[in-house]
């Protein structure tokens, strides 16, 4: 089965990523890597020279080039929109910067009602550069689907409240439990902003969307459910009508997987700490009413530096575990480290494509036939 | 029941910490805090002025003073030996420093067979300053038990291999899976060194011992069991004959709790991500042969900045969950943050002592009567 580039295929998607996300059995196990476009690529470092992170995200041509780089280099089954979780906040005028070696730095951290004024809703024109970049990308990508990129309200809130990266999120959590009304207002505003950011990408042509709640794993289940999940659910629910698969990802979220699916995800991103079939089993055990659980993950990125035979066996292990789950999108358990060797990633892609299907069959999953 | 300071009480321990650790029901729920001796205390900052971390750990009078500071200030049920996980390595001559704001920095990171030569066994005299400090402390502490302090082989290995703190432990994991013989030799040496460090403390008078495997939570269960657990088990087994309760702690170890108990712990330290009774239930469900599971934890330290009524309710929640477990030692889920207000910690201790027992009873645990 092949299709002309640009053909709408929402009813019968043939892209392996979209088939797997729907719990169908594609011709090959789809693979992409979080942060596949980034510092590990020499061609990325070249085009970013002298250009700040936020500036690079604001130039549609550059976003297009950077997003395409790993697609050119690897035979990946998806492109991930090159952006930063801070981009929608920058777009509405929050005074912030991405400092190399540090991360996001917020000029005036949000600690009270007054600070909230920085967070206005997205207005017409704010995201035109996003629309332009996605449209340019989709035209170039042809059949390879573009995944929309967005940080989740909690992870964004953690930067806004702390003023930058944090080890323990002490101020964020203190606000969350100690000033619940302020927290609610903050999270509602962030949910509206991130929903707009994600909708813009999908409406411009992204064929899937991933919500990155990178730091949600720092929360207890109870706190996640009470103070975070409703807002992530608002974002995921806010794009449900667009009909693209929604991937929900965080690090260290073994305890939160059920809730993260419940928030409205079609695909659950899993880090390397638990096998994919254990993750899926956990969700099914807790929520019998959910449909087939589709997983994305979960090779430990720290193992990319291991000798190839060892790494290859780890890739196969992930494929076997993913083979016991209705749908599997191969990925790392977190982003590509800047030190990763692109040739190693290329070999991982080859291996997933070469052996993925047979390892799935060996796992014995009752495949849903593609009609 | 009271006892003269220094009375041996190994058969019938009356200290609440030791009773709880044995699954008995003490008069009050015991409480102490990881890193209770440290930067959050003004008296600590005063005595440390102009003295480096490692120097402070090498002076028995200063170790005694610093260890006692929180015991004087709070009515805690245990002292934790003031030290650093790097101290035993420093004692055998590894060239390292603790850099303020950074953490341990290793002059020559261990990456090959040659690097291993830095890790000789502990020799007579190496730990005399530890023995002296513990003896001094025990004389001062009277009935309050001293807990021995030790970093676990994996956490130590991560610093030695990376050369310092790390986000992803990429080099460590690459060695673990890619050079298994080198890894084995490294971990065996570290297990011998840390066993000697912990034995020294217990033989000098510590009445419990905690093994800190702070970063073990970065591993998958499979990797933990294959490449880390045997060495932690060697350490815990290596002090079993001394008859003191062994506490085993790590951060983000929800998936590893069963294995960490299996390694030979009498008390399992739990971070804030899962309720204590869920943690204990998980261990019991997997290992029916283990005796009563005793837990330590697990207030989220990030919540110490919350308004008191909110924090108090969180303390009560921890007590209720701990009340559904055979034995509970109240603690934070990780160390006291430097920014914590000592007055807040004092109130937490008071609350645990005032309400802990009644909340346990309300939880309805079948208490083992103290004969």
TrEMBL record, chains A, B:
Pathway terms, separated by semicolons: Porphyrin-containing compound metabolism; protoporphyrin-IX biosynthesis; coproporphyrinogen-III from 5-aminolevulinate: step 4/4
Residues marked Transition state stabilizer (site): 84
Sequence positions that bind substrate: 35-39, 84, 159, 214, 334
Gene Ontology BP terms: protoporphyrinogen IX biosynthetic process
Gene Ontology cellular component list: cytosol
GO MF terms held by the record: uroporphyrinogen decarboxylase activity
Reactions the enzyme catalyzes: uroporphyrinogen III + 4 H(+) = coproporphyrinogen III + 4 CO2
Keywords: Cytoplasm, Decarboxylase, Lyase, Porphyrin biosynthesis
Domain Uroporphyrinogen decarboxylase (URO-D): 30-39, 147-163
Subcellular location: Cytoplasm
Pfam families tied to this protein: URO-D
Main location group: cytoplasm
Assigned EC number: 4.1.1.37
Function: Catalyzes the decarboxylation of four acetate groups of uroporphyrinogen-III to yield coproporphyrinogen-III.
Self-association and partners: Homodimer.
Family classification: Belongs to the uroporphyrinogen decarboxylase family.
Name the UniProt record assigns to this protein: Uroporphyrinogen decarboxylase
The organism of origin for this protein: Auraticoccus cholistanensis
Lineage per the UniProt record: Bacteria, Bacillati, Actinomycetota, Actinomycetes, Propionibacteriales
